[in-house]
Write a structure and sequence with these properties.
about 140 residues, mainly alpha, 3 helices
Length: about 140
């Protein structure tokens, strides 16, 4: 039984280590994927347009060299990484704001419910008093 427990714990530890490795590398992988898929493509298109407008006599070969230099630039990865971090922070802040607003709404609804309950109780008490006041002359006991 003890060996079985050790085997299970070893498997669990290995799974946790693999999960940790994936979590540590996912930021780098997602940054590179977004940079290659979106940022480099847009930067290359923008550079090509600017070079064609500013220097119409530049050959396509030179434009391709500039595009390759942009693709291999690590600054784009840094910018994308910073933007992704800011997006994550904004998502966290939006989630916190959402939870805070839900809490405020819950508090508001509870206080409103309590106010209605108190108001209803007050109205019922007033009605009882009026009813009793009308019954006093007739000496009717409740």
């Amino acid at each position: 039984m003890k060996k079985f427990g050790n085997v299970v714990l070893t498997i669990v530890m290995l799974c946790l280590i693999m999960l940790l490795c994936v979590n540590l590398s996912i930021k780098t992988m997602s940054t590179k994927a977004i940079t290659n898929a979106v940022v480099v493509q847009e930067a290359s298109n923008g550079i090509e347009e600017v070079l064609n407008q500013a220097f119409p006599d530049v050959s396509n070969e030179n434009i391709k060299k500039v595009e390759e230099a942009v693709k291999n630039n690590s600054a784009l990865n840094d910018v994308t990484s910073d933007l992704l971090e800011q997006m994550v922070v904004m998502l966290i802040l939006l989630r916190l704001l959402h939870n805070y607003l839900k809490l405020l709404m819950k508090i508001f609804l509870q206080s409103k419910k309590q106010l209605v309950k108190k108001s209803l109780q007050s109205s019922v008490n007033k009605f009882k008093v009026r009813l009793l006041m009308k019954m006093v002359p007739y000496k009717i006991k409740l």
